[in-house]
Structures are given as C-alpha cells and as structure tokens.
Design a protein that fits this description.
mainly alpha, 2 strands, about 65% helix
Length: about 80
C-alpha cells in the first residue's frame, strides 16, 4: 500500500478500483463511473504495476478481484 500511496492520483485510482468489482465488465464499470473505459483501464494498470500484482481477474465476468487484490481493496475500504 505504501508504494501505491506515493503515486500521483493514486487515491482517485483506488476509489475507482473499489467500484469496479461486481460489474459485468470494465466497460460497464466505466459507464457507471462516467468515464471512458480506456481511462479506467489506465488507472487500474497503474495500480497493478505499482502494487506488483493483478488486482482483478480480467478474464472473469463479472469483474472479480484476485485474492491479493481483494486484500488491497479491503485495506483501501478501511482507510477511506
């Protein structure tokens, strides 16, 4: 979490990541957030690159968090 917290726009990206899980697709999540899918994908990629692991299983529908991703999202919920 410390590596993520030092990145620019990371708080906004974490808030968006919290809202992704459970949507039928990243496209549906982006529509619900009112942003282009490519922007949402970029935010998630930045988080995953910084964390060093995948937050979401991008093959699953609906979008589900990986085991490590769920831990990070749970920590984020507690902090926010």
């Amino acid at each position: 979490m410390q590596r993520i917290s030092t990145r620019r726009n990371s708080l906004q990206a974490l808030r968006r990541a919290l809202l992704v899980a459970g949507h039928p697709s990243l496209r549906a999540a982006a529509l619900a957030l009112g942003m282009p899918r490519t922007s949402l994908t970029g935010h998630l990629r930045m988080l995953e690159d910084t964390a060093g692991f995948a937050l979401f299983d991008h093959r699953e529908r609906p979008v589900t968090a990986t085991q490590r991703g769920q831990v990070l999202l749970d920590e984020t919920r507690q902090l926010l």
